[in-house]
């Protein structure tokens, strides 16, 4: 869930899973609950959290959180917690049948993206996101949906039986190597506990055969208000919403003598638990250590001591990540990549996790190196300079989050409420966290940090797991080998970590200034345009959508379309190599130290038809951002030895890709869709062998040799008078020539004829994967983009109703539309789904029938309304997004297309006939690519 919180303070400070305790218990130095939350409990036991957040305007999120999950199932209910989640969308008291989905989709709330749910081992969560709040009746309807999900799911017998097929297909879709390995690992991780036998998706024998009453028994026993909380966050009136909750949920009775919600212990293990397993479709060799430990004391939850503990753990985790990153960036690393995490496992245990991915037959070496570094940390700890860098970055993150506090998204507040309800975590605001870290971060000592780190590097409560491909090319490590390596490293001597202390200035001498020679404005876009003395165009559009960020994009035509075919692999990796090599006279490691404490990112990039540079920075770090822009263009650096090491790591990672049916399917699509063009880059061992870092560097310099035709776009919290000296110094000074670059047409096209490719691939779980693409030439304008999206939306609804809901033949059908502008304008609508091989022909036939029905009959009035409501709602939301405006400006100055002007007018003018006509042109008159992958008969 932390991925959802990157833009807000919760990404930095994540209160993790600790069992709730008596909230009235007196706690020393207790932190104050965020006063902007309205928190209460109804007489029936239902808890509610309400938080006003005007960003985005006129929208809110509605959640119901159930403190129940798969762990509460009986053996004859294995998988039914998840099955019940599905049934919540198949009829409730106030929304019979599919009326819940029908209603909310009619107001622009899309199933999947905005209406969804998930089931885990210990929790189940349902939500309606981005719900319009412009009418009180809509808010009431959203609350009524939560009300029904709480206690009034219909569970009609026919609907239950119809859903069995959907669940089977979800099981089939998720039954790849990752799921199989995860399930196998959990047998060791959760050994001797109920968690080992509850994997959420459940047992297909149970799914296929359970009696209806068995599902109803689970529902009636566990779905009750004392185990539920509702969370409403968004542009709402909290007082009004609280009153409506009291009214709407009043008919739910308080449970009489309810079964206590049990917790399940995960037993300790004094000796390590070892587990080694191989899978025929596994792509990587991995060795991992899982260490279970006791959570922070329950009686001190909500104290400042807890804040300190969490922050110290965050420091330790980041220090470990940095140390292992440094190892894998070395010239001859013993592992390809690493993962480190300190976080949740189950409510009664937390987890310290370190894992490495290694080369084939390199598991012993990688495990040895991992253990050696952990031993070094255990014995000598981290250094003061390492810790100073991490503390700088943490404090800077809180400062930025405090500055951006008015732009915090609903997701962050929802998760804060969820963690409070399920785990007893305190709900605190960024004002408290920023002030606490300003006052206390430096007092967290080197000794304190090293002591906590050492507690995780121990011999007890460890689970050691090795996984890899079941292949003749891979010799799996054995349990005896793992034990032997542990013994060897334990007996070995290690040296203290040697830190690189020098932090030189990023730019020793500023370049001579250029100047701005012309200024104009674009009234349609609200931009200021400058032409610089070296010919570069700069576009400025201030906005206050982010207070602590300036975002930029720079580009010109060209890209790796200018590469010779034999040099394409080198050209493809050129920008990536530069990003990994540092800049000017600074290595990558040195650059990281120089930039510590700064909020910024600058990255050069070379796509097929453009080269450019993009990134962001806090206004405080604006000059550093401009210096990086200048250096990446004027003084790029290549570390050839490091690049060769990166190539070797990629080759090692790709060795087992051919074992995967997913890879075979993706490769076939990639090649067939583009007429098997040699200019469609396809990464494999042969291509990687052709990469020459020297040629990559030369190609990079050629792409940025002339800046004529280059455009920079800056948006965000900018003052043009403050940016002017930076632009004159660092951009107007970049050397350029009179040569204007462009891209080349190498003849690569999307399918120019019909293709039908059926093939078989080895797989552990039988599954047919189907991909269709309708390709045609099309006008590259906003109207075409909008109508193509409307076609995709309609097809998605048709497939949902027929293939999933009526037939139970697939879990989901993905429909995406794309427009390629270069070298010619082509549109394609792609459709993809998985199904049971036994019914694949029928599913494909039904899909084609639905496509033909669209061409023949057009769009229903109901779907037309959904299409318009969804598009307009999303557009209004996008207008409040800084990323959207960056995209609008980039598209306009790159391709001359305004994707914002008249958007809602074009949407409002859509008709069934206009969508039908566009579908007949884009689908009916184009080329069809049909790719079907079946399981190979053993």
TrEMBL record:
Q: Which Pfam families match?
A: Peptidase_M16 (PF00675), Peptidase_M16_C (PF05193)
Matching entries from Gene3D superfamilies are given as:
Metalloenzyme, LuxS/M16 peptidase-like (3.30.830.10)
At the top level, the lineage of the source is: Bacteria
Q: Which GO terms describe its biological process?
A: proteolysis
Q: Which residues form the Peptidase M16 C-terminal domain?
A: 210-393, 698-869
| SUPFAM superfamilies found in the cross-reference section | LuxS/MPP-like metallohydrolase (SSF63411)
Q: What is this protein called?
A: Zinc protease
């Amino acid at each position: 869930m932390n991925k959802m919180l990157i833009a807000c303070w919760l990404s930095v400070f994540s209160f993790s899973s600790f069992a709730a305790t008596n909230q009235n218990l007196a706690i020393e130095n207790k932190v104050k609950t965020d006063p902007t939350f309205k928190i209460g409990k109804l007489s029936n036991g239902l808890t509610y959290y309400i938080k006003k957040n005007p960003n985005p305007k006129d929208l809110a999120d509605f959640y119901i959180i159930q403190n129940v999950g798969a762990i509460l199932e009986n053996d004859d209910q294995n998988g039914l917690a998840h099955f019940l989640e599905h049934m919540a969308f198949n009829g409730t008291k106030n929304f019979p049948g599919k009326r819940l989905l029908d209603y909310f989709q009619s107001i622009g709330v899309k199933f999947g993206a905005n209406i969804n749910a998930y089931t885990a081992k210990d929790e189940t969560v349902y939500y309606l996101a981005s719900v319009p709040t412009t009418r009180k009746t809509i808010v009431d309807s959203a609350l009524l949906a939560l009300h029904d999900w709480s206690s009034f799911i219909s569970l009609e017998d026919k609907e239950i039986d119809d859903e069995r097929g959907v669940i089977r297909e979800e099981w089939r879709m998720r039954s790849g190597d990752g799921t199989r390995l995860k399930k196998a690992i959990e047998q060791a991780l959760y050994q001797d506990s109920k968690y080992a036998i509850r994997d959420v998706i459940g047992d297909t024998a149970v799914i296929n055969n359970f009696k209806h009453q068995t599902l109803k028994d689970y529902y009636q026993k566990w779905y009750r208000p004392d185990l539920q909380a509702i969370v409403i966050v968004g542009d709402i009136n909290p007082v009004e919403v609280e009153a409506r909750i009291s009214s709407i949920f009043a008919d739910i009775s308080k449970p009489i003598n309810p079964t206590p919600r049990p917790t399940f212990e995960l037993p300790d293990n004094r000796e390590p638990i070892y587990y080694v397993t191989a899978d025929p479709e596994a792509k990587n060799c991995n060795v991992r250590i899982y260490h279970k430990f006791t959570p922070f004391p329950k009686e001190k939850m909500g104290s400042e001591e807890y804040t300190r503990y969490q922050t110290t753990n965050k420091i330790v985790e980041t220090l470990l990540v940095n140390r292992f990153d440094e190892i894998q960036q070395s010239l001859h690393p013993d592992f390809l990549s690493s993962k480190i995490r300190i976080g949740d496992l189950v409510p009664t245990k937390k987890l310290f996790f370190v894992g490495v991915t290694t080369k084939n037959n390199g598991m012993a070496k990688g495990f040895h190196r991992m253990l050696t570094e952990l031993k070094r940390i255990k014995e000598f700890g981290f250094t003061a300079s390492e810790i100073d860098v991490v503390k700088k970055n943490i404090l800077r993150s809180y400062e930025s989050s405090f500055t951006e506090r008015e732009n915090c998204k609903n997701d962050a507040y929802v998760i804060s409420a969820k963690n409070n309800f399920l785990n007893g975590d305190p709900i605190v605001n960024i004002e408290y966290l920023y002030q606490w870290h300003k006052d206390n971060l430096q007092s967290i000592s080197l000794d304190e940090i090293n002591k906590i780190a050492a507690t995780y590097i121990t011999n007890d409560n460890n689970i050691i797991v090795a996984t890899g491909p079941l292949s003749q090319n891979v010799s799996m490590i054995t349990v005896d080998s793992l034990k032997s390596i542990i013994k060897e490293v334990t007996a070995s001597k290690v040296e203290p970590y040697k830190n690189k202390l020098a932090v030189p200035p990023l730019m020793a001498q500023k370049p001579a200034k250029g100047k701005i020679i012309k200024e104009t404005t674009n009234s349609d876009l609200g931009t200021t345009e400058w032409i610089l003395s070296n010919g570069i165009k700069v576009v400025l559009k201030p906005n206050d959508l982010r207070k602590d960020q300036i975002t930029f994009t720079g580009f010109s035509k060209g890209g790796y379309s200018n590469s010779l075919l034999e040099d394409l692999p080198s050209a493809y990796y050129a920008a990536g190599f530069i990003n990994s090599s540092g800049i000017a006279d600074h290595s990558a490691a040195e650059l990281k130290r120089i930039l510590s404490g700064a909020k910024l990112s600058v990255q050069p990039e070379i796509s097929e038809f453009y080269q450019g540079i993009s990134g962001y920075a806090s206004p405080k770090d604006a000059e550093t951002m401009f210096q990086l822009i200048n250096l990446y263009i004027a003084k790029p650096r290549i570390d050839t030895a490091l690049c060769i090491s990166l190539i070797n790591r990629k080759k090692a990672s790709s060795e087992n890709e051919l074992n995967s049916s997913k890879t075979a399917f993706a490769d076939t699509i990639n090649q067939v869709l583009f007429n098997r063009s040699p200019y469609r880059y396809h990464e494999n061992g042969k291509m990687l062998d052709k990469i020459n870092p020297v040629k990559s560097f030369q190609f990079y310099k050629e792409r940025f040799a002339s800046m004529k035709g280059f455009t920079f776009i800056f948006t965000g919290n900018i003052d043009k008078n403050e940016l002017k000296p930076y632009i004159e110094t660092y951009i107007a000074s970049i050397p350029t020539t009179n040569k204007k670059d462009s891209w080349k047409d190498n003849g690569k096209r999307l399918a120019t004829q019909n293709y039908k490719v059926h093939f078989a691939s080895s797989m552990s779980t039988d599954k047919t994967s189907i991909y269709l693409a309708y390709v045609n030439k099309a006008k590259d304008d906003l109207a075409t983009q909008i109508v193509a999206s409307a076609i995709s939306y309609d097809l998605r609804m048709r497939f949902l109703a027929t293939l999933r809901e009526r037939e139970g033949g697939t879990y989901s059908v993905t429909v995406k539309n794309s427009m390629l502008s270069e070298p010619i304008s082509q549109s394609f609508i792609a459709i993809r789904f998985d199904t049971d091989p036994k019914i694949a022909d029928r599913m494909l036939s039904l899909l084609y029938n639905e496509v033909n029905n669209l061409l023949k009959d057009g769009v229903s009035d109901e779907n037309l309304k959904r299409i318009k409501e969804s598009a307009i709602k999303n557009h209004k939301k996008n207008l409040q997004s800084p990323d959207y405006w960056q995209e609008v400006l980039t598209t306009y100055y790159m391709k001359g297309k305004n994707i914002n002007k008249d958007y809602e007018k074009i949407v409002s003018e859509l008709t069934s006939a206009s969508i039908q006509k566009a579908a007949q042109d884009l689908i009916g008159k184009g080329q069809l690519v049909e790719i079907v992958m079946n399981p190979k008969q053993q």
